[in-house]
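Q: What changes when NAP is included in the input?
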Amino acid sequence: MKIRDHVLITGGSRGIGAAAVLAFAQAGYDVAFTYSSHPEAACTVLHEAQRFAPEGKFLSIQADVSQSKEVTRAVSTVLDSFGSLEVLICNAGIAQQKLFTDLTDEDWHHMMAVDLDGAFYSCRAVLPAMIRQKYGRILLISSMWGQTGGSCEVHYSAAKAGLIGLGKALAKEEGPSGITVNCIAPGVIETDMMSGFTDEDKAALAEETPVERLGSAEEVARTMVFLAGRESGYITGQVLGVNGGLVI
Ligand code: NAP
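A: The predicted holo structure follows.
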């Protein structure tokens, strides 16, 4: 009988996270996901997942990843409901374009709280159960800006680079427990996060990209399913770009 693995995806209500919920549902996983402020979007994703995989179990939980207690509560709910958790995907994130010299303390701390602290809280909350079962897959959704640095996105770049450091160090610490930890570094992906960019901006970005287009949330989601698979156990501590060749 095929083992049915369980995945928790943070920020599954929209964009890349929503595509991931559906991709894991189709791949035969039971899927829990969190959202922050769009319950209607979460509800739509939940129904779509149920339609894709009527035999699957799906769960959506409101939890702000920047709040340690909310993350702990969400992980307990998932463990109580699924019995085990094999895969964690730290995907929830925010972006902001601003000159470095205009950044306020609040801008900086909020970015760190959501994009970096959220992954710390999530990994820490799931690890005791993963260590006990001597198996786990953790994926951290970084960004090409975490690899190269993005002008006018210094706080975002710093948080995303922090995820790469977190992932590499955690991969070393948890490897002996059968747990792999990898980062995915998307390039320019068409989601709400790109809503601040004009069509001209997007066309210019596509032109700069070797494959001459922007990426889709589904393309990132398929990479997640690959890295989360039981057969991907010899890949750990890596940063995999899904960027059409924009960063090589
Ligand atoms: P998106 O469309 O804006 O979706 C963001 C998701 O994160 C939503 O589900 C949102 O929930 C959730 N979220 C935001 N703040 C949260 C919080 N405090 N607590 C819990 N959930 C929260 O973004 P996306 O483009 O799919 O991005 C997903 C990840 O990929 C992010 O980490 C982003 O940095 C990374 N990434 C994106 C791109 C890109 O070009 N799009 C490129 C590189 C990396 P609500 O719906 O409830 O607000």
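Observations recorded in class: The CA atoms of residues 19 and 218 lie 5 Å apart.
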